[in-house]
Design a protein that fits this description.
seven-stranded mixed β-sheet, 11 helices, 15 strands, homodimer, 335 residues, alpha/beta, six-stranded mixed β-sheet
Chain lengths: 335, 335
């Protein structure tokens, strides 16, 4: 059923399992002990960072499958993406796994996009199990979007640290676990930010737009949720989001941002916070889904936020369009 | 309902409208008069080819919407993608249209991937209208994947000409028009082709795999279809596909390839044929969907085929993974 922009799932599919894998910096952050696996070396034994990112995804997918106690034969489709040009982290990760696959590109919004589409498929009982995966790698992202690491560029205060992480989830039409109750796909918003070191500002308007549309469709207020979560707005973008929502008459006191949860900003020198498709993917799987499973949260509005530029459009002087997809999650025992 | 890898839609959604836009070379090819709009200048009045490709998508989407006699307010979601790094042709096309959007990356397999996902959404009555769009542009693709045009590189006999084209479709849960009966998402196949000028060979194994799995799940033979269509295998890939299928005991006499339909190979100097995400998207909308609507075809298995490498993985010495997604289309009056 669709109400305005929001797809309300009559038979909410279940998140049966999830897994997150992180790199070295993630192993030193506040969520370290919640990861399913952590890497001491961001090369993961590979010759290139690009291949290392594929390994992160494979680990996340394999661990998730294991936690769901199922096999690849029981997976109908994997939906996944990453930040590399032509999404090669995902393509090469899935090359080594013999499973139906559909590639996504949503930049850092990929995880909510993937879970949202997976929920629509599993919620229609078209399929058996559907998985969603997203990743990012600090080293592949920096040299692709900004400058090679060897350049040693100064980081601006608005800049964010791309997570070296992957998260994967498995959804089923039925079973036990948190459920996806509704999905709101994003509309692109571009407030003419052109600073490639200020992703938070570029993405905040899209997050505000999606939150407003979701609440309107569901007839809910922010306080109906235990948390309204954004993907990787970090400090700059989070402040802007709250301002934008306040401008629309909405006081949000329970906002959380994955970009502010993954690292300890004070001690880990990440400037405004974390970013990357792996940021919201891993924080969903290390913090929010376990919280829903254990009853610490009962109802969450979870958004992943993406900045949709490329190095080419940046050099051509384009501004940065943002997008944010939302999924409404409820605990197993919530009504 | 899912049978093996194939999603069989209990309520097959309807392709209510479609539109295709092409560039200069397409305007000189055998399908010219079937396009909804043709461009004499591949710049489309823009300063960059990248922006020009966004315009192609916007035109295809807008024309499709007009032909469906509906408005953006009635569109629940647009699923779309292209070949540019970070899918910017699509992102910037959709920036100017205020509609929910989910980005895909499937390289040249994008159109069947998008129609397949759209069919699952519309077939579940989760949504009102869902659109799928895909594009490519010869000039954006050449400089990104191979060499800048100014370099004037010789083309090898196995090379294909990237279509400057976009195609868009609109699906609804009900109404009149051809229907999507079943969807088979692809599994990645890599036969270790590493020649970036031989995409057809890289994609043929994936096409063979998807066709075999679809026929097995549906319990059908090639002759049950009026045509088994592939996206852009062109001459080299088409020959290999038929060989691979023959090796599996399958004689396919009704194979058609969009890469061999879009141009006149003899007179248009396109070497092995056409390619690009816009190739299968535009040939679907100029030839196969009109054929289904007019009763020239009753049942078609339509695949888009994609090569999932990037310039980075190519330079890192990786081989080229291929993928192929299939949609089974039936005419309005077919059983």
């Amino acid at each position: 059923m669709q109400k305005l922009d929001t797809i309300i799932l009559q038979k909410p599919p279940v998140l049966r399992a999830w897994a997150a894998v992180g790199g070295k910096k993630e192993s030193e952050g506040p969520l370290a002990e919640c990861f399913d696996a952590l890497q001491e070396d961001n090369h993961l034994g590979e010759e290139s960072w690009e291949r290392a990112e594929s390994r992160l995804q494979q680990q996340a997918l394999t661990l998730c499958l294991k936690k769901a106690q199922t096999t690849w034969e029981e997976v109908s489709l994997v939906l996944g993406g990453d930040l590399q040009c032509q999404c090669t982290a995902t393509n090469y990760a899935l090359r080594d796994i013999d499973v139906p696959f559909a590639g996504l590109y949503g930049a850092c919004s990929t995880m909510a996009e993937g879970v949202g589409l997976a929920a629509c498929l599993a919620g229609a009982a078209h399929t058996r199990n559907v998985m969603a995966v997203a990743s990012s790698h600090f080293c592949t992202a920096e040299r692709q979007y900004r400058t090679p690491l060897e350049y040693g560029g100064q980081r601006t205060p608005t800049s964010q640290w791309t997570a070296t992480a992957a998260g994967a989830v498995l959804l089923s039409p039925a079973g036990r676990g948190p459920r996806v109750q509704a999905v709101t796909f994003g509309r692109i918003r571009d407030y003419e930010i052109s600073d490639i070191n200020n992703m938070g500002a570029a993405m905040a308007p899209a997050a505000a737009s999606t939150i407003l549309r979701h609440l309107e469709a569901m007839g809910t207020s922010p306080e109906d949720y235990d948390a309204i979560v954004t993907g990787d707005l970090a400090q700059v973008g989070s402040d802007l989001l709250l301002q934008l929502l306040e401008g629309e008459g909405l006081q949000v006191k329970n906002h959380r941002d994955c970009g502010l949860l993954l690292y300890d900003r004070e001690h880990q020198r990440v400037k405004a916070g974390a970013s990357g498709a792996g940021c919201s993917a891993s924080v969903l799987c290390t913090h929010f889904l376990p919280g829903l499973a254990k009853g610490r949260y009962r109802r969450i509005l979870f958004l992943s936020t993406g900045a949709l530029m490329s190095q080419t459009t940046f050099l051509q002087g384009e501004t940065i369009p943002g997008i944010a997809h939302a999924i409404e999650l409820i605990g197993e025992d919530a009504e």
